[in-house]
Amino acid sequence: MSDAIISDVIAHPLTQTMTRPTSTSWGTYTEVSMVLVEVRTDAGVTGVGETLARFAPKAYADLIETLLKPRLVGQPVSNIAAHWHTMRRSLSGRSGGMLIEAIAGVDIALWDIMGKLAGLPLARILGGMNRSEIDVYGAAINWVDDDEADAELARLIGRGFTNIKVKMARPVDEACRRIQRMREKAGSKIGLCVDANWAYSLDEAVEVGRALSDNGYFWFEEPLKPEDEYGYERLRERCDVPLAAGESNYSVDQARRLLANRTLSVLQPDVARAGGVTETRRMALLADAHDVAYAPHIGMSGIICETASVHLSAAMPNFRIMECECDESAFKVQIADLRPGCLRQENGRLKVPEGPGLGLQIDWDAVKHLRSQ
Ligand SMILES: [Mg+2]
């Protein structure tokens, strides 16, 4: 394998109106954005990455092209760890926010190129676990009225999911009612978990957590705001349901405490937020060292985030299950030709792509069509 020299970094800000709005404890989303990062090389090999940029995608694109690109052009692709640190030090202050999300898109693209140069799928470049398929769960049944929730449950079960996530919000008595009702509707054979998107105070989370353990839910995701590590530690002592979090963390530093004391049972970094493949792998492996499972977050992100996460899932020893957002997002079904996004899973399993790098063929006409105005 010979190396290649980075010749250009292009950021494509994309926006779409969602076919089905997403309703969580935060409210309802009808429009979502991302940035597709294209890294070109002198060898003619191009890599693609994705930056989580739910809002203001043009600001992220500007950050990538004006701050990060000049530090990379002319450099060999394979020094990815060095590139990560150079990009990280392009701004001072603690790590997080837009910079780390911007780095994520570039970093994923560099790993895509590495796989293509080697002629191997990314999962194997990362030190594969010899997995050809991974487990996924259906996400999500939204915070909607009972009839709509029943329809979403039936739709997800109809698509073959055996594990399903349910969004919860306030008030607590209503959440507890829905938790019990959803268990009765789903029956005992469907695995259920809950995502609260930081809806609760500590005392409220204890009450909801009790309803979850009484009804056999397999995890309680982001019950508290991500900065409240002390709250998570207290909650761990006061409820039995396993705690999951990590989609709001940008780096291994922000996950360390809750991993080291095993407050979390499951860590859920998002590769398009947490600094790309390089940092997400560090987070997953630190979790593994503390016997905490790795379960990638996808949410409203696109096919590149999803596919990079599939490769990480296939390579990390502590992988448990990956989120599969079952919408018809243009970011999943139009940008790349890897079979339509939400239709690829069968019986709650997803095949690991076998092509080199991410294994994606980008439809550049679709990218142009989705460009943010
Ligand atoms: Mg979540």
From TrEMBL:
Keywords: Lyase. Residues 147-242 form the Mandelate racemase/muconate lactonizing enzyme C-terminal domain. One of its GO terms (molecular function) is lyase activity. InterPro entries: DgoD-like (IPR034593), Enolase-like_C_sf (IPR036849), Enolase-like_N (IPR029017), Enolase_C-like (IPR029065), Mandelate_racemase_C (IPR013342), Mandelate_racemase_N_dom (IPR013341). SMART domains: MR_MLE. It comes from Nitratireductor basaltis. This is Galactonate dehydratase. It holds the Pfam family MR_MLE_C.
